[in-house]
Design a protein that fits this description.
Layout: H1 2-10, H2 12-16, H3 22-44, H4 46-55, H5 60-72, H6 79-84, H7 91-115, H8 119-148, H9 154-184, H10 191-215, H11 233-238, H12 244-261, H13 264-275, H14 279-287, H15 289-307, H16 309-328, H17 335-359, H18 362-365, H19 372-401, E1 406-408, E2 411-413, H20 415-441, H21 460-472
Antiparallel strand pairs: 1-2
């Protein structure tokens, strides 16, 4: 029994999440918040959000426009240090901002179509609500990032992102599959299906309050600053340029965000309307992500330890790029299309595990100890600006092409499929960029460990098969 307790206490999960240590309690509250927020986001966003907009007559171009509106509000991050650094304790200020964001973004968007009947006015109303919701979020959300970073020391960070992704995907996936099955049981595009989607949004709004509660639970620590005065908005834009490693890290994040978002606003609509993929299949494949984490999480940890965060990321971006080439050829022709869609998405789950695990740590790798609110605000502005430019480009591309198509060896490609092909090219460029920058963005204290046997990078059952083969020889 005593040995069992020792094993449990040394397990990665127990080290990351438990209620016995102060910082572990903080991480436990963080993962609870992440799961709850993810459930709320998936019930009110993703493919359900696309169905919500299509149900109220919003076309593909206008959906693209609404997709980049949140990023237009990113400049409100400049006000984050100015507002938050007035408060030595920020717990309830941040909670109030979070409640306001959820109320505007979920409840406001859900009620608007009932109150506004004119199609043009609806689009303007959607755009204004989305803008104001994200303006509020950009002012207050950086406070959570700076506060909760205290619970993620370097030696625990990989395990945290690893374990949190598994837990998040298992719980969220089950809820999404159930809600998708209910939605698909009703006539596609009919009023009953739209009614279910609206109900799911109200459920998401109720769940969001639990997220606010979880975020308020951890202990607050002092917020170090290098200046006695509040940092001005202009300082937020200039201060990070004094840290070369941090600014080059932002360049990598800017480049990848642009590549990843060129086609993002249109994929779900394309799958629902053109390819005729069901909500259940889309969300069912998304829910399968946790299986990939279970199978590959230890390999990801070992690769990061062996190759560094950036090199692991660059390798897997280059591996992921060809999946978008395959995605280009998913179309509504026969049953084989669904199998190609499933294959592509499962491959992207594998590559996405390594990319998500590394990319999510990038803002923290070269983050200084002081003025973190300013640096995190700059990070949000950089990433959101990139997403805005990317979605502006994608939306303009779809609008200019309209119904025009491109015929390749008898296969007709629409504008969304062409953007998927462009994503393939851009991701190759991002991977190569990171390899070029590696010597300049790896942290000063990074030292490549001794050569790791290639067997350590394999799945256990692969190592066992190779051992049996060697014995037979």
């Amino acid at each position: 029994m005593r040995n069992m307790k020792i094993v449990i206490k040394n397990a990665a999960f127990f080290r990351v999440f438990n209620l016995h240590e102060e910082k572990a309690r903080g991480r436990t509250a963080m993962i609870a918040s992440a799961v709850i927020a993810s459930i709320a986001a998936n019930l009110s966003g993703g493919v359900f959000y696309s169905g919500f907009l299509v149900g109220y007559g919003i076309n593909l171009v206008n959906i693209g426009i609404l997709s980049f509106v949140p990023y237009m509000a990113s400049l409100f991050c400049l006000l984050s240090p100015l507002v938050l650094e007035r408060f030595p304790k920020r717990r309830w200020v941040l909670a109030g901002g979070r409640v306001l964001y959820y109320t505007i973004n979920i409840l406001g968007l859900t009620l608007l179509p009932k109150l506004v009947q004119d199609p043009g006015a609806r689009i303007w109303g959607f755009a204004l609500i989305i803008f104001f919701a994200n303006a509020v979020n950009n002012i207050f959300s950086q406070g959570y990032s700076v506060w909760h970073l205290n619970f993620l020391p370097e030696d625990i960070r990989a395990d945290y992102f690893n374990q949190s992704n598994i837990i998040n995907n298992i719980i969220t996936g089950g809820i999404l599959i159930t809600s998708s099955a209910i939605t698909d049981a009703l006539p596609a595009g009919g009023p009953e299906q739209l009614r279910i989607i609206v109900i799911l949004r109200f459920v998401a709004y109720g769940i969001a309050f639990l997220d606010v509660l979880m975020l308020a639970l951890p202990k607050e620590y002092p917020y170090p600053r290098s200046e006695t005065k509040s940092i001005s908005p202009a300082k937020v834009l200039t201060l990070p340029f004094k840290n070369k490693k941090f600014i080059l890290t932002m360049l990598v994040m800017f480049a990848y965000t642009f590549a990843a978002n060129v086609s993002t606003p249109f994929i779900n609509v394309h799958l629902i309307e053109n390819v005729k993929v069901s909500y259940s299949l889309i969300n069912g494949i998304n829910a399968a992500y946790f299986i990939v984490f279970i199978l590959f999480r230890n390999i990801a940890k070992r690769q990061i330890a062996r190759w560094s965060w950036f090199k692991t990321y660059a390798i897997w971006v280059l591996v992921q790029a060809p999946t978008f080439l395959l995605y280009t050829f998913v179309h509504n022709a026969d049953g084989a299309t669904n199998w190609l869609f499933i294959t592509v998405r499962l491959l992207q789950h594998v590559t996405g595990l390594f990319i998500t695990l590394t990319y999510s740590n990038f803002p923290y790798i070269n983050l200084p100890e002081t003025d973190r609110t300013a640096y995190m605000s700059f990070y949000v502005i950089a990433v959101h600006s990139s997403a805005l430019l990317s979605m502006l480009f994608g939306t303009g591309f779809v609008k200019i092409l309209g119904d025009a198509t491109l015929n390749i060896f008898g296969l007709v490609l629409n504008s969304v499929q062409m953007l998927l092909f462009l994503t393939f090219i851009l991701e190759i460029g991002v991977g190569l960029l990171v390899f070029v920058l590696l010597p300049r963005i790896n942290p000063e204290n990074w030292k490549e460990p001794p050569q790791m046997p290639r067997e350590r990078l394999m799945l256990p059952w692969v190592r066992k098969r190779l051992a049996i083969r060697d014995e037979q020889k």
